[in-house]
Design goal:
Number of helices: 14
CATH architecture of the domain at 7-170 and 399-419 and 450-469: 3-Layer(aba) Sandwich
CATH class of the domain at 7-170 and 399-419 and 450-469: Alpha Beta
Strand content: 15-25%
Number of strands: 15
Helix content: 25-40%
Distance between the termini: 22 Å
Shape: globular
CATH topology of the domain at 7-170 and 399-419 and 450-469: Rossmann fold
Strand order of the largest sheet: 13-12-11-7-10-9-8-14-15
Length: about 475
Amino acid sequence: MGNDMPAKGLPTSRRGLLRGAGITGAGALFAPSIARAQSRGQKVNIACVGIGGRGADVVKDLHNSGLANVVALCDTEMGNARTAEVIRMFPDVPRFRDFREMFDKVGNSFQAVSIATPDFSHFPVAMQSMAMGKHIYCEKPMGHSVRQIQLMMDAATKYKVVTQMANQGHSGPGYFQFKAWTDAGIIKNVKRITTFMNSPRRWHGKSVTGFLPTQPVPADLDFDVWQATSKPHPYNFGYMVGEWRSWFDYGNGALGDWGAHIFDNAHEFLRLGLPTEVESVKIEGASRFYFPQASTLAFRFPARGAMPPVELSWYEGQQNLPPLPADFGSSVVDPNIPPPTSGSIETKRLAPGKVIYGEGLTFKGGSHASELEILGAAGRDLRGKLPKVPAYDTSHAGNFLRAVMGQEHAHSNFLVAGPLCQTMALGVIAQRTNAKLSFDPGSRRITNHKVADALLFGDTPRPEWEQYYRL
Protein backbone atom coordinates (compact mmCIF):
# COMPACT_ATOMS: atom_id res chain seq x y z
CA MET A 1 0.00 0.00 0.00
CA GLY A 2 1.42 3.38 -0.99
CA ASN A 3 0.68 6.80 0.39
CA ASP A 4 -0.26 8.07 -3.07
CA MET A 5 -3.17 5.71 -3.71
CA PRO A 6 -5.50 7.18 -6.38
CA ALA A 7 -9.11 8.06 -5.71
CA LYS A 8 -10.48 4.80 -7.14
CA GLY A 9 -11.63 3.83 -3.63
CA LEU A 10 -14.20 6.62 -3.75
CA PRO A 11 -17.65 5.83 -5.19
CA THR A 12 -17.80 6.51 -8.92
CA SER A 13 -20.82 8.77 -8.50
CA ARG A 14 -18.67 11.13 -6.43
CA ARG A 15 -15.95 11.52 -9.05
CA GLY A 16 -15.62 12.96 -12.52
CA LEU A 17 -13.86 15.62 -14.53
CA LEU A 18 -12.87 18.88 -12.82
CA ARG A 19 -14.58 21.40 -15.00
CA GLY A 20 -16.78 24.46 -14.91
CA ALA A 21 -16.49 28.21 -15.17
CA GLY A 22 -12.88 29.29 -14.86
CA ILE A 23 -11.54 25.72 -14.68
CA THR A 24 -12.12 23.86 -17.97
CA GLY A 25 -8.83 23.54 -19.78
CA ALA A 26 -7.16 25.84 -17.30
CA GLY A 27 -4.20 23.53 -16.78
CA ALA A 28 -3.06 24.28 -20.33
CA LEU A 29 -3.02 28.02 -19.66
CA PHE A 30 -0.07 27.85 -17.31
CA ALA A 31 1.70 24.51 -17.36
CA PRO A 32 3.57 23.65 -14.14
CA SER A 33 6.81 22.91 -16.00
CA ILE A 34 6.73 26.40 -17.51
CA ALA A 35 5.94 27.96 -14.12
CA ARG A 36 8.91 26.24 -12.54
CA ALA A 37 11.27 27.12 -15.37
CA GLN A 38 10.27 30.78 -15.27
CA SER A 39 11.01 30.83 -11.54
CA ARG A 40 14.55 29.45 -11.65
CA GLY A 41 16.88 31.91 -9.94
CA GLN A 42 14.11 34.49 -9.67
CA LYS A 43 11.42 35.39 -7.20
CA VAL A 44 8.12 33.51 -7.35
CA ASN A 45 5.01 35.56 -8.04
CA ILE A 46 2.42 34.49 -5.49
CA ALA A 47 -1.23 35.25 -4.72
CA CYS A 48 -2.19 35.09 -1.05
CA VAL A 49 -5.68 33.84 -0.16
CA GLY A 50 -6.48 34.52 3.48
CA ILE A 51 -4.53 37.48 4.87
CA GLY A 52 -6.04 38.13 8.31
CA GLY A 53 -5.07 36.43 11.58
CA ARG A 54 -2.85 33.45 10.84
CA GLY A 55 -2.97 34.44 7.17
CA ALA A 56 -1.03 37.62 7.93
CA ASP A 57 1.79 35.51 9.43
CA VAL A 58 1.84 33.32 6.32
CA VAL A 59 2.12 36.36 4.03
CA LYS A 60 4.98 37.70 6.16
CA ASP A 61 6.78 34.34 6.11
CA LEU A 62 6.62 34.21 2.33
CA HIS A 63 7.63 37.84 1.91
CA ASN A 64 10.45 37.67 4.47
CA SER A 65 12.00 34.69 2.68
CA GLY A 66 13.16 37.13 0.01
CA LEU A 67 12.03 34.63 -2.62
CA ALA A 68 8.46 35.80 -3.32
CA ASN A 69 6.69 38.70 -4.96
CA VAL A 70 3.19 39.12 -3.53
CA VAL A 71 1.12 40.12 -6.57
CA ALA A 72 -2.49 39.53 -5.44
CA LEU A 73 -4.40 39.49 -2.14
CA CYS A 74 -7.71 37.79 -1.41
CA ASP A 75 -9.80 37.61 1.75
CA THR A 76 -13.55 37.37 2.31
CA GLU A 77 -13.14 40.17 4.88
CA MET A 78 -11.00 42.41 2.68
CA GLY A 79 -11.00 45.89 4.21
CA ASN A 80 -11.80 44.63 7.72
CA ALA A 81 -9.42 45.62 10.52
CA ARG A 82 -8.03 42.06 10.53
CA THR A 83 -6.76 42.43 6.97
CA ALA A 84 -5.47 45.99 7.34
CA GLU A 85 -1.87 45.13 8.23
CA VAL A 86 -1.21 43.15 5.07
CA ILE A 87 -2.98 45.74 2.92
CA ARG A 88 -0.63 48.38 4.34
CA MET A 89 2.33 46.16 3.45
CA PHE A 90 1.20 45.86 -0.17
CA PRO A 91 -0.94 48.93 -0.90
CA ASP A 92 -0.68 48.68 -4.69
CA VAL A 93 -1.44 44.96 -5.03
CA PRO A 94 -4.86 44.00 -6.51
CA ARG A 95 -7.34 42.92 -3.83
CA PHE A 96 -10.32 40.56 -4.00
CA ARG A 97 -12.93 38.98 -1.71
CA ASP A 98 -13.68 36.02 -4.00
CA PHE A 99 -10.77 33.81 -5.08
CA ARG A 100 -12.65 32.87 -8.26
CA GLU A 101 -12.72 36.50 -9.34
CA MET A 102 -9.02 36.76 -8.56
CA PHE A 103 -8.24 33.88 -10.89
CA ASP A 104 -10.46 35.30 -13.62
CA LYS A 105 -8.93 38.79 -13.51
CA VAL A 106 -5.25 38.32 -12.62
CA GLY A 107 -4.68 34.56 -12.84
CA ASN A 108 -1.89 34.94 -15.40
CA SER A 109 0.16 37.16 -13.07
CA PHE A 110 1.20 34.53 -10.50
CA GLN A 111 2.74 31.06 -10.40
CA ALA A 112 1.83 30.07 -6.85
CA VAL A 113 -0.95 30.48 -4.28
CA SER A 114 -0.85 30.52 -0.48
CA ILE A 115 -3.99 29.36 1.31
CA ALA A 116 -4.55 30.46 4.91
CA THR A 117 -8.34 30.44 5.11
CA PRO A 118 -10.31 28.39 7.68
CA ASP A 119 -9.73 24.61 7.49
CA PHE A 120 -12.99 23.87 5.68
CA SER A 121 -12.29 26.27 2.80
CA HIS A 122 -8.74 25.22 1.84
CA PHE A 123 -10.11 22.63 -0.56
CA PRO A 124 -11.82 24.66 -3.33
CA VAL A 125 -9.02 27.23 -3.50
CA ALA A 126 -6.45 24.45 -3.78
CA MET A 127 -8.39 22.51 -6.40
CA GLN A 128 -8.87 25.52 -8.66
CA SER A 129 -5.25 26.56 -8.18
CA MET A 130 -3.85 23.16 -9.10
CA ALA A 131 -6.16 22.81 -12.12
CA MET A 132 -4.67 26.08 -13.37
CA GLY A 133 -1.12 24.84 -12.83
CA LYS A 134 -0.45 26.93 -9.72
CA HIS A 135 1.83 25.68 -6.98
CA ILE A 136 0.26 25.50 -3.51
CA TYR A 137 1.39 26.53 -0.02
CA CYS A 138 -1.56 25.47 2.17
CA GLU A 139 -2.12 25.78 5.91
CA LYS A 140 -2.80 22.60 7.87
CA PRO A 141 -4.82 20.47 7.83
CA MET A 142 -5.09 20.19 4.05
CA GLY A 143 -8.84 19.61 3.96
CA HIS A 144 -11.89 19.05 6.10
CA SER A 145 -12.68 15.43 5.14
CA VAL A 146 -10.90 12.27 4.01
CA ARG A 147 -12.51 12.74 0.60
CA GLN A 148 -11.27 16.32 0.17
CA ILE A 149 -7.74 15.37 1.18
CA GLN A 150 -7.69 12.44 -1.26
CA LEU A 151 -8.80 14.64 -4.14
CA MET A 152 -6.13 17.21 -3.24
CA MET A 153 -3.45 14.50 -3.34
CA ASP A 154 -4.76 13.19 -6.65
CA ALA A 155 -4.87 16.70 -8.14
CA ALA A 156 -1.27 17.38 -7.09
CA THR A 157 -0.22 14.23 -8.93
CA LYS A 158 -2.35 14.90 -12.00
CA TYR A 159 -1.31 18.52 -12.48
CA LYS A 160 2.33 17.98 -11.45
CA VAL A 161 2.47 21.06 -9.24
CA VAL A 162 4.68 21.75 -6.23
CA THR A 163 2.69 21.52 -3.01
CA GLN A 164 3.51 22.20 0.61
CA MET A 165 1.37 21.91 3.72
CA ALA A 166 2.36 24.67 6.12
CA ASN A 167 3.27 22.69 9.22
CA GLN A 168 6.34 24.84 9.72
CA GLY A 169 8.30 22.44 11.91
CA HIS A 170 8.65 20.11 8.95
CA SER A 171 11.57 22.23 7.79
CA GLY A 172 13.04 22.72 11.25
CA PRO A 173 15.70 20.99 13.39
CA GLY A 174 13.32 18.30 14.67
CA TYR A 175 12.56 17.18 11.12
CA PHE A 176 16.21 16.71 10.16
CA GLN A 177 17.05 15.13 13.52
CA PHE A 178 14.23 12.57 13.26
CA LYS A 179 15.35 11.58 9.76
CA ALA A 180 19.02 11.31 10.79
CA TRP A 181 18.21 9.25 13.89
CA THR A 182 15.88 6.96 11.97
CA ASP A 183 18.39 6.44 9.16
CA ALA A 184 21.09 5.64 11.76
CA GLY A 185 18.88 3.16 13.65
CA ILE A 186 18.73 5.28 16.81
CA ILE A 187 14.94 5.36 16.45
CA LYS A 188 13.87 1.82 15.52
CA ASN A 189 11.19 -0.78 16.12
CA VAL A 190 8.78 1.77 17.58
CA LYS A 191 5.61 0.10 18.86
CA ARG A 192 4.01 2.86 20.92
CA ILE A 193 3.71 6.64 20.68
CA THR A 194 1.90 8.90 23.18
CA THR A 195 0.91 12.36 21.93
CA PHE A 196 -0.84 15.11 23.86
CA MET A 197 -2.26 18.61 23.60
CA ASN A 198 -3.66 19.68 26.97
CA SER A 199 -3.72 23.45 26.54
CA PRO A 200 -7.01 25.40 26.76
CA ARG A 201 -9.02 25.47 23.56
CA ARG A 202 -11.69 27.99 22.62
CA TRP A 203 -14.56 25.49 23.05
CA HIS A 204 -13.53 24.43 26.55
CA GLY A 205 -16.08 25.36 29.18
CA LYS A 206 -18.77 26.02 26.59
CA SER A 207 -21.90 24.06 25.75
CA VAL A 208 -24.24 24.43 22.78
CA THR A 209 -27.56 22.75 22.03
CA GLY A 210 -27.73 23.71 18.36
CA PHE A 211 -26.45 26.07 15.73
CA LEU A 212 -26.41 29.77 16.45
CA PRO A 213 -29.26 32.21 15.68
CA THR A 214 -29.16 34.36 12.56
CA GLN A 215 -27.43 37.73 12.73
CA PRO A 216 -27.05 40.39 10.01
CA VAL A 217 -24.06 39.76 7.75
CA PRO A 218 -21.46 42.56 8.10
CA ALA A 219 -21.03 44.73 5.03
CA ASP A 220 -17.29 43.95 4.85
CA LEU A 221 -17.79 40.14 4.68
CA ASP A 222 -18.63 37.91 1.71
CA PHE A 223 -20.21 35.20 3.84
CA ASP A 224 -21.27 33.09 0.86
CA VAL A 225 -17.68 32.69 -0.29
CA TRP A 226 -16.50 32.29 3.32
CA GLN A 227 -18.69 29.16 3.69
CA ALA A 228 -17.35 27.73 0.42
CA THR A 229 -17.98 23.96 0.16
CA SER A 230 -19.10 23.54 3.79
CA LYS A 231 -22.65 22.87 4.93
CA PRO A 232 -24.16 26.38 4.94
CA HIS A 233 -25.54 28.00 8.09
CA PRO A 234 -27.01 31.47 8.65
CA TYR A 235 -24.40 34.01 9.68
CA ASN A 236 -23.47 34.42 13.32
CA PHE A 237 -20.29 36.03 14.62
CA GLY A 238 -19.89 32.93 16.82
CA TYR A 239 -18.54 31.09 13.77
CA MET A 240 -15.96 33.73 12.89
CA VAL A 241 -12.40 34.71 13.85
CA GLY A 242 -11.26 31.20 14.70
CA GLU A 243 -14.49 30.13 16.43
CA TRP A 244 -15.19 27.93 13.39
CA ARG A 245 -12.57 25.54 14.77
CA SER A 246 -14.96 24.58 17.61
CA TRP A 247 -17.69 23.27 15.28
CA PHE A 248 -17.67 19.87 13.56
CA ASP A 249 -19.23 21.45 10.46
CA TYR A 250 -16.36 23.90 10.08
CA GLY A 251 -13.27 22.81 12.01
CA ASN A 252 -11.01 19.87 12.79
CA GLY A 253 -10.57 20.59 16.49
CA ALA A 254 -7.38 20.32 18.50
CA LEU A 255 -6.30 17.21 16.59
CA GLY A 256 -6.47 18.87 13.17
CA ASP A 257 -4.86 22.00 14.56
CA TRP A 258 -1.96 20.39 16.45
CA GLY A 259 -1.52 16.80 15.26
CA ALA A 260 0.48 17.96 12.24
CA HIS A 261 2.84 19.83 14.58
CA ILE A 262 3.28 16.96 17.05
CA PHE A 263 3.46 13.60 15.27
CA ASP A 264 4.22 14.62 11.67
CA ASN A 265 7.87 13.48 11.78
CA ALA A 266 6.98 10.13 13.32
CA HIS A 267 4.26 9.66 10.74
CA GLU A 268 6.60 10.31 7.82
CA PHE A 269 9.83 8.64 8.90
CA LEU A 270 8.20 5.60 10.50
CA ARG A 271 6.11 5.28 7.32
CA LEU A 272 2.89 4.92 9.30
CA GLY A 273 0.56 5.59 6.36
CA LEU A 274 -3.08 5.03 7.29
CA PRO A 275 -4.39 3.24 10.41
CA THR A 276 -6.53 0.13 10.26
CA GLU A 277 -8.29 0.98 13.52
CA VAL A 278 -9.16 4.22 15.29
CA GLU A 279 -10.76 3.94 18.72
CA SER A 280 -12.47 6.61 20.77
CA VAL A 281 -11.16 5.49 24.17
CA LYS A 282 -12.60 8.38 26.16
CA ILE A 283 -14.93 11.31 25.43
CA GLU A 284 -15.96 14.01 27.90
CA GLY A 285 -18.62 16.54 26.98
CA ALA A 286 -19.85 14.80 23.83
CA SER A 287 -21.91 16.99 21.48
CA ARG A 288 -23.50 16.68 18.06
CA PHE A 289 -22.19 20.13 17.15
CA TYR A 290 -19.07 20.97 19.17
CA PHE A 291 -15.77 19.27 19.78
CA PRO A 292 -15.60 17.45 23.13
CA GLN A 293 -14.13 18.94 26.27
CA ALA A 294 -11.64 16.07 26.44
CA SER A 295 -10.89 12.95 24.45
CA THR A 296 -8.44 10.09 24.21
CA LEU A 297 -8.01 8.36 20.85
CA ALA A 298 -6.00 5.30 19.84
CA PHE A 299 -4.72 4.97 16.25
CA ARG A 300 -3.48 1.49 15.32
CA PHE A 301 -1.16 1.16 12.34
CA PRO A 302 -0.21 -2.21 10.83
CA ALA A 303 3.29 -3.55 10.32
CA ARG A 304 5.18 -1.95 7.43
CA GLY A 305 7.70 -4.41 6.05
CA ALA A 306 10.10 -5.21 8.90
CA MET A 307 8.69 -2.44 11.11
CA PRO A 308 6.26 -3.60 13.81
CA PRO A 309 2.67 -2.38 14.29
CA VAL A 310 2.34 0.95 16.10
CA GLU A 311 -0.30 2.27 18.49
CA LEU A 312 -0.40 6.06 18.63
CA SER A 313 -2.47 7.54 21.47
CA TRP A 314 -3.78 11.11 21.45
CA TYR A 315 -4.77 12.97 24.64
CA GLU A 316 -6.53 16.35 24.59
CA GLY A 317 -8.39 18.28 27.28
CA GLN A 318 -6.98 20.35 30.11
CA GLN A 319 -7.32 17.61 32.74
CA ASN A 320 -6.95 14.60 30.44
CA LEU A 321 -3.23 14.21 30.97
CA PRO A 322 -1.37 11.27 29.43
CA PRO A 323 0.64 8.62 31.28
CA LEU A 324 4.30 9.59 31.11
CA PRO A 325 7.59 7.88 32.00
CA ALA A 326 8.76 8.49 35.55
CA ASP A 327 11.88 10.26 34.25
CA PHE A 328 10.01 12.44 31.73
CA GLY A 329 11.04 15.67 33.46
CA SER A 330 10.02 19.02 32.02
CA SER A 331 8.31 19.57 28.68
CA VAL A 332 10.17 20.17 25.46
CA VAL A 333 9.10 23.58 24.14
CA ASP A 334 9.84 25.15 20.78
CA PRO A 335 10.32 28.87 21.51
CA ASN A 336 9.15 29.77 17.99
CA ILE A 337 5.58 28.45 18.36
CA PRO A 338 3.24 31.21 17.13
CA PRO A 339 0.72 32.47 19.72
CA PRO A 340 -2.85 31.14 19.42
CA THR A 341 -5.70 33.43 18.43
CA SER A 342 -7.64 32.28 21.50
CA GLY A 343 -6.83 30.35 24.65
CA SER A 344 -3.21 29.80 25.56
CA ILE A 345 -0.45 27.26 25.06
CA GLU A 346 0.41 25.48 28.29
CA THR A 347 4.16 25.42 28.90
CA LYS A 348 4.53 25.24 32.70
CA ARG A 349 2.66 22.02 33.44
CA LEU A 350 2.72 19.96 30.22
CA ALA A 351 3.29 21.60 26.86
CA PRO A 352 2.04 19.88 23.68
CA GLY A 353 4.31 17.00 22.81
CA LYS A 354 4.99 13.29 22.55
CA VAL A 355 6.76 10.24 23.95
CA ILE A 356 8.11 7.67 21.48
CA TYR A 357 8.90 4.17 22.75
CA GLY A 358 11.53 2.53 20.54
CA GLU A 359 13.72 -0.53 20.91
CA GLY A 360 15.92 0.10 23.93
CA LEU A 361 15.33 3.86 23.94
CA THR A 362 12.51 6.20 24.93
CA PHE A 363 12.30 9.68 23.42
CA LYS A 364 10.41 12.78 24.49
CA GLY A 365 9.63 15.71 22.25
CA GLY A 366 7.52 18.79 21.84
CA SER A 367 5.74 20.26 18.84
CA HIS A 368 6.72 22.16 15.72
CA ALA A 369 10.50 22.21 15.13
CA SER A 370 11.55 20.99 18.58
CA GLU A 371 14.13 18.21 18.76
CA LEU A 372 13.79 14.88 20.56
CA GLU A 373 15.58 14.05 23.79
CA ILE A 374 16.53 10.54 24.90
CA LEU A 375 15.34 9.72 28.40
CA GLY A 376 17.43 8.18 31.16
CA ALA A 377 20.97 6.82 31.37
CA ALA A 378 20.79 5.53 27.79
CA GLY A 379 20.56 9.09 26.56
CA ARG A 380 23.56 10.16 28.61
CA ASP A 381 25.57 7.20 27.33
CA LEU A 382 24.87 8.13 23.72
CA ARG A 383 26.05 11.73 24.00
CA GLY A 384 28.79 12.31 21.49
CA LYS A 385 27.83 9.18 19.55
CA LEU A 386 24.66 10.43 17.89
CA PRO A 387 24.67 11.15 14.14
CA LYS A 388 25.28 14.72 13.09
CA VAL A 389 22.11 16.54 12.11
CA PRO A 390 22.57 18.59 8.93
CA ALA A 391 22.15 22.34 9.26
CA TYR A 392 19.31 23.97 7.35
CA ASP A 393 18.83 27.72 7.39
CA THR A 394 15.77 28.07 5.13
CA SER A 395 12.25 28.52 6.46
CA HIS A 396 9.38 26.19 5.56
CA ALA A 397 8.00 28.89 3.26
CA GLY A 398 11.46 29.25 1.77
CA ASN A 399 11.65 25.50 1.21
CA PHE A 400 8.39 25.68 -0.76
CA LEU A 401 9.57 28.60 -2.88
CA ARG A 402 12.93 26.93 -3.58
CA ALA A 403 11.00 23.81 -4.62
CA VAL A 404 8.99 25.91 -7.08
CA MET A 405 12.32 27.19 -8.42
CA GLY A 406 13.50 23.59 -8.87
CA GLN A 407 16.22 23.88 -6.21
CA GLU A 408 14.82 21.62 -3.45
CA HIS A 409 12.00 19.18 -2.80
CA ALA A 410 9.05 20.32 -0.69
CA HIS A 411 9.37 18.65 2.72
CA SER A 412 5.63 18.47 3.45
CA ASN A 413 4.22 18.00 -0.04
CA PHE A 414 0.67 16.70 -0.37
CA LEU A 415 1.73 13.08 -0.85
CA VAL A 416 3.57 13.28 2.49
CA ALA A 417 1.01 15.42 4.32
CA GLY A 418 -2.13 13.83 2.83
CA PRO A 419 -2.09 10.51 4.73
CA LEU A 420 -1.18 12.40 7.92
CA CYS A 421 -4.22 14.65 7.44
CA GLN A 422 -6.46 11.70 6.58
CA THR A 423 -5.35 10.01 9.79
CA MET A 424 -6.32 13.12 11.76
CA ALA A 425 -9.66 13.32 9.89
CA LEU A 426 -10.36 9.72 10.93
CA GLY A 427 -9.67 10.74 14.52
CA VAL A 428 -12.25 13.52 14.24
CA ILE A 429 -14.79 10.97 12.99
CA ALA A 430 -14.03 8.81 16.03
CA GLN A 431 -14.63 11.85 18.25
CA ARG A 432 -17.96 12.55 16.52
CA THR A 433 -19.22 8.96 16.74
CA ASN A 434 -17.52 7.94 20.02
CA ALA A 435 -16.82 4.56 18.46
CA LYS A 436 -14.13 2.03 17.61
CA LEU A 437 -13.71 2.20 13.85
CA SER A 438 -12.26 -0.38 11.48
CA PHE A 439 -10.71 1.28 8.44
CA ASP A 440 -9.61 -0.37 5.18
CA PRO A 441 -6.69 1.69 3.77
CA GLY A 442 -7.08 0.02 0.37
CA SER A 443 -10.65 1.12 -0.27
CA ARG A 444 -10.46 4.16 2.05
CA ARG A 445 -13.66 2.99 3.75
CA ILE A 446 -14.82 2.40 7.33
CA THR A 447 -16.14 -1.15 7.33
CA ASN A 448 -17.98 -1.47 10.65
CA HIS A 449 -19.91 1.79 11.11
CA LYS A 450 -22.21 3.21 8.40
CA VAL A 451 -22.57 6.64 9.98
CA ALA A 452 -18.81 7.00 10.36
CA ASP A 453 -18.25 5.76 6.80
CA ALA A 454 -20.59 8.45 5.46
CA LEU A 455 -18.59 11.10 7.32
CA LEU A 456 -15.52 10.22 5.21
CA PHE A 457 -17.11 12.15 2.35
CA GLY A 458 -17.91 15.31 4.27
CA ASP A 459 -20.79 17.61 3.49
CA THR A 460 -22.69 17.61 0.22
CA PRO A 461 -21.66 20.90 -1.39
CA ARG A 462 -24.06 23.46 -2.76
CA PRO A 463 -24.55 23.03 -6.54
CA GLU A 464 -22.28 25.94 -7.48
CA TRP A 465 -19.41 24.31 -5.51
CA GLU A 466 -19.79 20.73 -6.81
CA GLN A 467 -17.27 21.30 -9.61
CA TYR A 468 -14.37 21.24 -7.17
CA TYR A 469 -15.05 17.60 -6.31
CA ARG A 470 -14.57 16.45 -9.91
CA LEU A 471 -11.09 15.37 -10.93
